[in-house]
UniProtKB/TrEMBL annotation:
The lineage of its organism: Bacteria, Pseudomonadati, Bacteroidota, Flavobacteriia, Flavobacteriales. Residues 31-60 are annotated as: NMP. AMP binds at T32, R37, D58, L59, V60, G86, F87, P88, R89, Q93, R134, R146. Its main location: cytoplasm. The keyword Membrane does not apply. Catalyzes the reversible transfer of the terminal phosphate group between ATP and AMP. Plays an important role in cellular energy homeostasis and in adenine nucleotide metabolism. The keyword Nucleotide-binding applies. Consists of three domains, a large central CORE domain and two small peripheral domains, NMPbind and LID, which undergo movements during catalysis. The LID domain closes over the site of phosphoryl transfer upon ATP binding. Assembling and dissambling the active center during each catalytic cycle provides an effective means to prevent ATP hydrolysis. It comes from Polaribacter reichenbachii. Pathway: Purine metabolism; AMP biosynthesis via salvage pathway; AMP from ADP: step 1/1. GO terms for molecular function: AMP kinase activity; ATP binding. This is Adenylate kinase. Pfam families: ADK.
Length: 190
């Protein structure tokens, strides 16, 4: 089983790359955002709990997020592996994920981080904002705030996975095909 944490700042191309990788390696892509939206839309117990926190402007506690992801993994028990996208975001989430997978005799094989200069990302996101309907992609100050959030939290996770020799930084600039090829070169060594 290959279990990958796909990481990168907003606009780095995580969703695009996850789609190619799940096909190439027959993996299940678990996007935290999609899982949240599904649970909230379908008014699951965890979705209602998450919505309560979000409606109050609070962060959803790790335990709720982790339980949603555990449910997704359990739904796909026969998978060849998982691409975790948008999770973990903190060291405590990474430790909880390690413990959960460890109980199943599994582990995270690698954190693959798409590395893209901030100015390139701003341009990408502003361009995406013209067609995506996402208001957070149309305001440069909001975009830069998201990068600040990402950079503050990522440094910790980079160190966490690097200490386990599981961190792989990938140049996220170039054609989609070139970036997929770079990631595949890492995947094929795992």
């Amino acid at each position: 089983m290959k279990n990958i944490v796909l990481f990168g700042p907003p606009g780095a191309g995580k969703g695009t790359q996850a789609n190619f990788l799940k096909e190439m390696y027959n993996l299940v892509h678990i996007s935290t955002g999609d899982v949240f939206r599904f649970n909230i839309k379908n008014a699951t117990e965890l979705g209602l709990l998450a919505k309560k926190y979000m409606d109050e402007g609070d962060l959803v506690p790790d335990e709720v997020t982790i339980n949603m992801l555990k449910a997704e993994v359990e739904k796909n028990a026969d998978a060849n592996g998982f691409i975790f996208d948008g999770f973990p975001r903190t060291q405590s989430q990474a430790e909880a994920l390690d413990a959960f997978l460890g109980d199943k005799g599994e582990q995270i094989n690698a954190m693959v981080a798409l590395e893209v200069p901030e100015d390139v990302l701003v341009t990408r996101l502003l361009e995406r904002g013209k067609t995506s309907g996402r208001t957070d992609d149309t305001d440069e100050s909001k975009i830069r705030n998201r990068f600040n959030e990402y950079n503050t939290k990522t440094a910790i996770l980079k160190d966490y996975f690097d200490a386990q020799n599981k961190y792989y930084g990938i140049n996220g600039v170039g054609s989609i095909e070139d970036i997929t090829k770079r990631i595949a070169e890492v995947f094929d060594t795992l």
